[in-house]
């Protein structure tokens, strides 16, 4: 009897402990190595990649490849993964240049894209050719739990950036010298340590610690150090560089003075204006450069790619040396259009040479679908018929040359006594220029007007009739920011404008 | 109607014929001798009373021998002794008869069926009736600690499916007898408790996910004495009996001595294993894939705080954990049961009082069910003529839920635990990794924090409270020996109250049309009041010990009233303020219903037996109800339409024939057949009326038409035919009962989408039909007898349904992602979806399939590598495109049938001296399940955590797998309703195993104290991947086999002690 009970008990206990999760076994257990091996295990399992694995271990990147985040490893085989740097930092850079974040499948990829490697470098992956950085992918899409291994036929050497190329350029080239000349150390209060405070409570900085390296070209035109953007930089030869300077030197004068200092300033301005248009946001191979390329400053630059005689592929684009690449005047110095409804306008918040303005102007930004920009602007003294001081608009920097002035204005004050069809009234206004003297508490003080036009009669009563009318011209002797001044004439108490246009007159 | 007339004529012909046959004459007294034995031990029994129809009576002597005078060798002698089933011995020509007595509880046809209005021995009934004596030494029902009364007959009756609604304590089971009878009506059998119709319907709509009203909790399992199941057409319950009738008899005192019984048990519910969800690393990789599929670059992804392994970032510790969220939700929990019974009385009054308290904790932390039951039954002999039986019970139950308001909702902690990112944790961790006691709020993916919902002082609060009072008073007037007049008055009063508060802490706010909801609250009360009155005349007579005649006529009235009131609110000022009405008035809603209905049944039953050999029974009921249409197709009496439900049954007890009486190994052999009509009146109370509904439109209340009335609406007619065979062999060592049946439902209530011009959605009408054919088989046997006793039993049932008529021949029902098809020629409610054949391993394979995927926006796109291969059953032969055929809804096929091929239970009992082991092993074979939870957990359309299976998702060209690629939003609809989600739900489960031991402590005042250990659901063998293969979403045919993944029934071990004074 005992035996029976024992036997039954044994069977029962065995049954109790036998898995009741059988149902999930086939369904949820890992089916194959795709789902069970990490990237590191996958690589370790392949003896042909042991050099790469040992480099991973030396640099600590092996830990990364065991993380539960997706990576793609572009693994070079032992026979091509040679000449490794001894320096661990350098080795890290090299190995990290073979690992990208995210699982990138190449077998179904047909387009070209740039892959960011852990080294911080973008590498071009050509889906159609199945190459990365022009290196053939020998075995595609070996999946692991945390990503994909792409076996490749050569080491992906980390490339330098365009700027590193410029900095390390050993030849002589005025263009490159100019770019390098813009580098320097600048005091930056934010990064400086404060050593104490003045009696007035202002901080005293340790100036040495606050000096930071800057290059105004990188800051203002294009950051050629950046890895996550692509650029093409054209470097023109010295001769072409001088030709461009000669062409533009008269147009980009900051001052008409002729002191050495003045000449140096003018030259710096001119060179900046020349060089800014040789940077393009796309990465063009020499053969791919379009005949008319658009520079980062949106200037159309005609490029004859047959004149390219040397090219360098950087990690963030290309540098092309070209014998000549002149930019036409009309492309570089473009007309300036100032919409009257622009935000940078002055109606009652200014003084003229310290004197208060006339009138009690009220401004209206009007919806006019046919107007340029969809709006125009009216300034009116409703409370009085007295003549006001008018409207001052901020215009861009003008080149040191003659500009023709154009105006488009419509008097459609329907229902108003100023409406000519009702009252035989002709609105007249005058266009001039001025410059800012000072600004204090949002009150702007302007110099008196330099008139550009005579009295301009606004005869158009609708946008159907309105025309762009040339109203005068003015020759600027130096480059500067100017303000346009539209002032009421005769006994008119209002001014109106759709836009004002300044067109360079190359004579 | 002509059928019925023919039936009635037939009945009279049979009755007349048999009366004419009764020609026996009294002859000189002759004697019968023999020995009475215990059928189990085969030992002779002394002092056994033997009685021959009051002509003679005697007792057995010390060696069990008896000698008694009989009128003829066709007499019937009654053998009775305490502790054994009364046995009637049909001499059938024998002069020497050995009698084997079976102990109470032992399976035998000598048991009585408690049909309340008549209690025939199972041996003599021509109907398909099973009687289960529970809480005897042959059964462990009372020792399972189940809070719900139906647990005692689960698995005990062939053809009866008792499917657990879930493992939420106290929610009970859905009961199906011989499959289904209705599509939109009720499929639950009629419950009659102590003679009173016991309403176990769920009125109104619950506001708590997983909550099911369970009136069976009002019957304590230890109070049940007998359960009798009437499976075929008895017709006496007319239009309420289409799903059969279950009679429950609660315990009464049977003797005058005082008996006190104490029963205590307690135990542990074991934390379930849960779903194998991905751990933090696997989930991170899955999330990475998901984000990449959205076109987010690896660089952008790696900048996310949870996709970055660099320590030192502020959120590093918040996002770098490995939490098994299911462990946060599930826990071991405890069960306590205490019961006390006292029985006794004198010759005037017998009483039985029982008081029970139970607390059953759920495996989801914080859930429990506790209840208090009291029952007082009495039998009073007022005079020789009058007697009164009264049954009064009261129950109060409290159920704490923590399951939110929907299965896959933000407020359901269990579902949120499954889908929550395992790299998160319950508590806020500082930048240095120190865990604070502050709960995290909902997470960056919008998934709630299950821990704060369950454990915070102002967490989720969902309570359902019940009160049920029942009282039935049966007054009998025994006019003479033959005629008894009885009237039963029964009342039932129910009050349910649900309240809930869904806090804002830890739960994502819900954006609705009128604003953002941060916290929610609500309550609902339901009151129900029912009066039953049953008046009947019962006439019994025996002529010459040869003709046994029983006639019953009666009338039963059932008056019901139910009222539901509910209110909901939202955005209370803080989680501490939880009452309805304290929220933002903008979100306040309230409503309810009040309904009254009445039914009346006139019934008659005639039963005739000839020499206990031939039995004939004819029944008829005439049923009216307030919800039957005025133009229904039935008998018009006055202004009302009544349904007429006749039935007829006959049996031939072959073992009472002389030619079989000498075959000593046959105790009983009976063939029986029945045929008759029943109906289903539980199909919605207001389809015949025109009614209006309240509607809130932009804050304004108004009423709109609520339905299209159908004055012709009526009961569903259920025609039942049954042929059965009862066999008892080898002195009750082998008892077999087999039935073959066909049920046909006609006038099936259908719901069609009404014409848009009507402005209404639905129109209910009687139209379709379907049949159910099946076999029931019950075998009970004693395998080993002797010192060690081993009983083994098998109950098995099998049925198939076929829809034979339906409006438009076909009905598709969309439920929780599944498409359920009901179609002529098919079984009722099958799963209808796409067949799959793995996953395209390569782009080439996908292109070669030449299949286009028809998307909901009508685009047709080719399948790609990593997409599921849907089988193209409908060839479209398209030319001029890259595809020749498309996968669209025409390609759907039947992918599963939720009905089992067969189901039942094996039970066994082993006894050795004082040790008894009882085990019940339930099984179901061939039922298909739509695993809706796994569908949620493997669809891979969102950032939700998924099961370990998705680690095998297709990721690279050439990878052979059956899990498709992970794509955000699943644009290719790889997760559509297909055979991927249909599983074989077959199982074998050790439902209960109880080992009890009678301690050999002999005292004068007490029986041997019994200690026991019970294990519930300890072992389950199944291929089903859900947490529990034994579940039921509702008692509708349409939801059968849809597993919403509610908490599973727990494995539990209980220790108990039972004292009898």
How does the helix and strand content of chain B classify structurally?
mainly beta
Beta-strand percent range of chain A: 25-35%
Query: Can you count the beta strands of chain A?
Result: 33
Quaternary status: heterodimer
> Quick one: how many beta strands of chain B?
55
Describe the structure in your own words:
The complex is a heterodimer of chains A (507) and B (1061). With 507 residues, chain A is α+β, with helices and mostly antiparallel strands. Chain A has 3 domains: 33-152, Roll (FAS1 domain); 162-332, FAS1 domain, CATH 2.30.180; 336-505, Galactose-binding domain-like (Jelly Rolls). In chain A, the strands form 9 sheets. Chain A has a 7-stranded mixed sheet with strand order 2-1-7-6-5-4-3. In chain A, strands 19, 23, 25, 28, 29 and 31 form a 6-stranded antiparallel sheet that branches. In chain A, α5 (50-59) crosses α7. The radius of gyration of chain A is 35 Å and the shape is elongated. Chain A starts with a helix and ends with a strand. The mean pLDDT of chain A is 87. In chain B, β28 (589-610) and β29 form a beta hairpin. The longest helix of chain B is centred in the N-terminal third of the chain and has 20 residues, at 2-21. Chain B has 3 domains: 25-108, Carboxypeptidase-like, regulatory domain (Immunoglobulin-like), CATH 2.60.40.1120; 142-267 and 333-411 and 448-830 and 920-928 and 985-1060, TonB-dependent receptor, beta-barrel domain (Maltoporin, Chain A), CATH 2.40.170; 835-891 and 942-972, no CATH class. In chain B, the strands form 12 sheets. Chain B has a 22-stranded antiparallel β-barrel. A 5-stranded mixed sheet of chain B has the order 8-13-14-11-12, with no helix packed on it. Chain B is mostly beta strands and 1061 residues long. Chain B is 7% helix and 46% strand. The interface between A and B is large, with 39 and 41 residues.
């Amino acid at each position: 009897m005992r035996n029976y009970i024992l036997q039954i008990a044994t069977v029962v206990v065995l049954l109790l402990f036998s898995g009741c999760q059988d149902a999930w076994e086939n369904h949820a257990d890992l089916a194959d190595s795709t789902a069970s091996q990490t990237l590191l295990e996958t690589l370790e399992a392949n003896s042909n990649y042991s050099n790469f694995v040992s480099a991973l271990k030396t640099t600590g990147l092996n830990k990364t490849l065991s993380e539960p985040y997706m990576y793609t490893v572009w693994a070079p085989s032992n026979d091509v993964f040679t000449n490794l740097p001894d320096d661990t930092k350098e080795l890290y850079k090299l190995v990290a240049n073979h690992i990208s974040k995210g699982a990138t499948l190449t077998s179904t990829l047909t387009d070209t894209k740039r892959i960011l490697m852990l080294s911080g470098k973008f590498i071009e992956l050509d889906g159609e050719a199945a190459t990365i950085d022009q290196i053939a992918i020998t075995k595609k899409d070996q999946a692991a739990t945390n990503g994909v291994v792409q076996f490749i036929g050569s080491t992906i050497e980390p490339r330098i950036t365009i700027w590193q190329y410029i900095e390390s350029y050993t030849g002589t080239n005025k263009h490159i010298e100019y770019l390098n000349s813009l580098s320097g150390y600048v005091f930056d209060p934010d990064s400086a340590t404060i050593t104490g405070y003045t009696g007035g409570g202002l901080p005293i900085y340790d100036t040495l610690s606050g000096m930071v390296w800057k290059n105004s070209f990188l800051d203002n035109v294009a950051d050629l150090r950046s890895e996550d953007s692509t650029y093409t930089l054209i470097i023109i030869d010295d001769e072409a560089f001088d030709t461009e300077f000669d062409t533009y030197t008269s147009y980009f004068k900051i001052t008409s003075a002729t002191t050495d200092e003045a000449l140096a300033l003018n030259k710096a301005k001119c060179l900046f204006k020349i060089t800014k248009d040789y940077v393009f946001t796309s990465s063009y191979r020499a053969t791919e450069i379009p005949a008319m390329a658009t520079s980062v400053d949106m200037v159309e630059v005609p490029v004859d790619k047959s004149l390219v005689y040397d090219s360098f592929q950087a990690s963030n684009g290309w540098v092309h040396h070209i014998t000549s690449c002149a930019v036409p005047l009309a492309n570089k110095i473009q007309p300036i259009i100032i919409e009257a409804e622009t935000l940078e306008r002055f109606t009652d918040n200014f003084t003229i040479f310290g004197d208060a303005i006339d009138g009690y102007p009220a401004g209206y930004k009007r919806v006019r679908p046919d107007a340029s920009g969809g709006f125009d602007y009216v300034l009116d003294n409703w409370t009085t018929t007295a003549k006001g001081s008018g409207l001052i608009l901020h215009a861009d920097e003008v080149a040191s040359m003659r500009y023709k002035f154009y105006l488009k204005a419509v008097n459609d004050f329907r229902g108003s006594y100023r409406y000519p069809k009702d009252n035989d009234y002709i609105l007249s206004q005058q266009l001039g220029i001025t410059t800012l003297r000072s600004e204090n508490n949002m009150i702007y003080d302007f110099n008196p007007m330099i008139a550009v036009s005579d009295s301009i009669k606004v005869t158009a009563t609708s946008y159907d009739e309105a025309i762009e009318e040339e109203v005068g011209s003015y020759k600027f002797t130096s480059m500067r920011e100017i303000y346009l001044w539209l002032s009421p004439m005769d006994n008119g108490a209002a001014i109106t404008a759709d836009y004002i246009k300044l067109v360079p007159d190359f004579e | 109607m002509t059928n019925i007339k023919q039936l009635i004529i037939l009945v009279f012909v049979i009755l007349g014929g048999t009366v004419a046959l009764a020609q026996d004459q009294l002859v000189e007294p002759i004697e019968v001798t023999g020995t009475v034995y215990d059928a189990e031990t085969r030992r002779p029994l002394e002092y056994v009373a033997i009685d021959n129809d009051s002509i003679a009576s005697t007792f057995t002597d010390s060696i069990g021998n008896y000698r008694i005078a009989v009128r003829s060798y066709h007499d019937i002698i009654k053998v009775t002794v305490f502790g054994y089933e009364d046995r009637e011995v049909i001499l059938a020509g024998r002069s020497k008869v050995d009698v084997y007595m079976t102990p109470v509880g032992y399976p035998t046809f000598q048991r009585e069926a408690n049909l309340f209005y008549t209690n025939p021995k199972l041996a003599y009934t021509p109907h398909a009736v099973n009687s289960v004596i529970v809480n005897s030494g042959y059964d462990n029902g009372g020792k399972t600690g189940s809070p719900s009364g139906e647990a005692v007959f689960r698995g005990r009756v062939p053809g009866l499916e008792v499917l657990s609604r879930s493992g939420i304590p106290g929610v009970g089971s859905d009961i199906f007898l011989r499959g289904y009878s209705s599509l939109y009506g009720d499929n639950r059998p009629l419950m009659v408790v102590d003679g009173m119709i016991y309403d176990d319907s769920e009125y109104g709509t619950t506001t708590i996910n997983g909550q099911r009203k369970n009136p069976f909790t009002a019957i304590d399992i230890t109070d049940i004495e007998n359960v009798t199941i009437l499976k075929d057409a008895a017709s006496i319950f007319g239009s309420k009996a289409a799903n059969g009738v279950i009679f429950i008899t609660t315990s009464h005192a049977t003797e005058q001595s005082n008996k006190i019984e104490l029963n205590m048990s307690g135990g542990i519910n074991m934390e379930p294993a849960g779903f194998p969800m991905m751990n933090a690393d696997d989930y991170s990789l899955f999330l990475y894939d998901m984000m990449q599929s959205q076109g987010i670059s690896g660089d952008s992804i790696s900048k996310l705080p949870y996709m970055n392994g660099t320590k030192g970032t502020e959120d590093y510790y918040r996002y770098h954990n490995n939490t098994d969220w299911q462990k946060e939700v599930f826990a071991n929990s405890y069960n306590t049961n205490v019961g006390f019974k006292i029985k006794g009385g004198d010759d005037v009054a017998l009483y039985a009082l029982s008081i029970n308290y139970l607390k059953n904790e759920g495996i989801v932390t914080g859930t429990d069910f506790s209840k208090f039951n009291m029952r007082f039954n009495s039998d009073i002999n007022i005079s020789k003529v009058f007697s009164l039986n009264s049954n009064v019970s009261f129950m109060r139950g409290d159920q704490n839920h923590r399951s939110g308001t929907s299965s896959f909702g933000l407020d359901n902690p269990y579902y949120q635990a499954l889908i929550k990112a395992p790299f998160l944790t319950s508590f806020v961790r500082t930048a240095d990794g120190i865990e604070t006691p502050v709960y995290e709020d909902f997470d960056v993916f919008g998934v709630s924090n299950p821990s704060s919902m369950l454990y915070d002082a102002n967490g989720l609060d969902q309570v359902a409270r019940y009160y049920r009072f029942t009282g039935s008073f049966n007054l009998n007037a025994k006019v003479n020996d033959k005629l008894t007049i009885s009237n039963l008055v029964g009342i039932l009063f129910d009050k349910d109250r649900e309240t809930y508060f869904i806090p804002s802490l830890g739960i994502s706010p819900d954006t609705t049309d009128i604003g953002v909801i941060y916290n929610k609250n609500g309550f609902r009360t339901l009151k129900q009041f029912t009066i039953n009155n049953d008046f009947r005349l019962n006439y019994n007579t025996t002529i010459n010990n040869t003709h046994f005649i029983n006639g019953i006529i009666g009338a039963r009235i059932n008056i019901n009233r139910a009222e539901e009131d509910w209110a909901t609110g939202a955005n209370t000022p803080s989680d501490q303020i939880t009452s309805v009405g304290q929220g933002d008035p903008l979100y306040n809603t309230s409503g309810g219903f009040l309904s009254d209905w009445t039914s009346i049944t006139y019934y008659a039953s005639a039963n005739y037996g000839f020499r206990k050999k031939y039995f004939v029974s004819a029944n008829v009921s005439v049923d009216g109800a307030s919800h039957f249409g005025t133009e229904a197709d039935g008998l018009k009496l006055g202004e009302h339409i009544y349904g007429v439900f006749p039935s007829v049954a006959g049996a031939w007890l072959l073992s009472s024939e002389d030619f079989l009486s000498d075959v000593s190994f046959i105790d009983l052999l009976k063939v029986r057949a029945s045929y008759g009509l029943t109906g289903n009146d539980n199909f919605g109370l207001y389809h015949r009326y025109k009614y209006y509904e309240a509607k809130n439109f932009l804050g304004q209340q108004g009423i709109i038409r609520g339905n299209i009335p159908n004055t012709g609406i009526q009961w569903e007619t259920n025609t039942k035919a049954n042929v059965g065979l009862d066999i008892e062999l080898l002195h009750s060592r082998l008892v077999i009962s087999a039935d073959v049946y066909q049920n046909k439902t006609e006038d099936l209530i259908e719901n069609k989408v009404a014409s848009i011009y009507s402005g209404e959605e639905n129109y209910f009408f009687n139209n379709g039909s379907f049949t159910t054919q099946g076999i029931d088989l019950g075998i009970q046997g004693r395998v080993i007898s002797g010192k060690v006793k081993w009983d083994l039993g098998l109950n098995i049932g099998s049925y198939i349904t076929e829809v034979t008529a339906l409006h438009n021949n076909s009905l598709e029902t969309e439920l929780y992602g599944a498409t359920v098809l009901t179609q002529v020629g098919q079984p009722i409610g099958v799963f209808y979806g796409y067949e799959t054949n793995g996953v395209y391993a390569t782009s080439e394979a996908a292109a070669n399939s030449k299949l286009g995927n028809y998307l909901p926006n009508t685009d047709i796109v080719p399948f790609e590598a990593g997409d599921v291969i849907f089988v193209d059953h409908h060839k479209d032969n398209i030319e001029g495109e890259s595809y020749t055929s498309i996968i669209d809804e025409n390609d759907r096929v039947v992918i599963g049938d939720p009905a089992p091929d067969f189901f039942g239970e094996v039970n066994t009992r082993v006894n050795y001296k004082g040790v008894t082991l009882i085990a019940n092993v339930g099984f179901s074979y061939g039922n298909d399940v739509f695993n809706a939870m796994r569908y949620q957990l493997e669809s891979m359309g969102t950032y939700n955590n998924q099961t370990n299976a998705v680690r095998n998702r297709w990721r690279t060209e050439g990878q052979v797998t059956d899990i498709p690629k992970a794509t955000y939003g699943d644009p290719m609809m790889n997760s559509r309703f297909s055979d991927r989600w249909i599983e074989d739900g077959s199982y074998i489960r050790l439902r209960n195993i109880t080992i009890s031991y009678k301690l050999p402590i002999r005292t004068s005042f007490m029986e041997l104290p019994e200690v026991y250990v019970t294990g519930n659901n300890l072992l389950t063998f199944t291929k089903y991947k859900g947490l529990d293969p034994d579940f039921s979403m509702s008692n509708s045919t349409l939801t059968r086999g849809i597993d919403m993944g509610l908490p599973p029934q727990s494995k539990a071990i209980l220790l108990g002690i039972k004292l009898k004074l």
